[in-house]
Amino acid sequence: MSRETKAAKRERAAKVEERMFSHYGPGEPSLDYDRDPFRLVCAVLLSAQCTDAAVNKVTPKLFGRYPTCFELASANAEDVEEIIHSLGFFRSKAANLVKLSRKLVAEFDATVPNDLDLLQKLPGVGRRTANVVMAEAFKNAQGIAVDTHVFRIAHRLKFAGPSADTPDKTERALLDLHPKETWLYINHQWVHFGREFCLARRPKCDLCIIADLCPSSGGGNHS
Hints:
By secondary structure, this protein is mainly alpha-helical.
């Protein structure tokens, strides 16, 4: 079995993205955030280790009580915990929501920064969250957010090799294949694709829109 060249892999990646765009368009976020960068930061932080649907159930009450970073900066973490207690790791998430709000007020003029590195200085905000905010809130993608869906799909497509065993390494592999103009869309598209076709336990390869491009479904001999 011949090894797939980098050029061939990039060509296959382009075909995958063409199919994704045809099926999903630019993709829509799964989190409700009223087009407010602050609320998006909070929602993505809350989505770690739980579903977007679960987050969307608690954020109306959260943002109803704390509509901006000013109110949340003055909140007691215990009160925030009561609102988000149905989510995993709710105590640490509540503490981080209050801390990041205070940092925004104190150091960023109550404005979510349009900067990947500055975003990661906010408590509880890692590279995945920062990537989502840069792409979704500011349409200024500086990378590709690698969540569980993107990680799984990248490896099933063999766009990331066995050594890319972390989200950061997987992101680097994807950035090497996909041109920057597509970075805005990939996370949203792949999240929807992961839920519709490329499920974690039982992928629907017989119905998949990119089955002929996927080595894991028998679509070609890519190694």
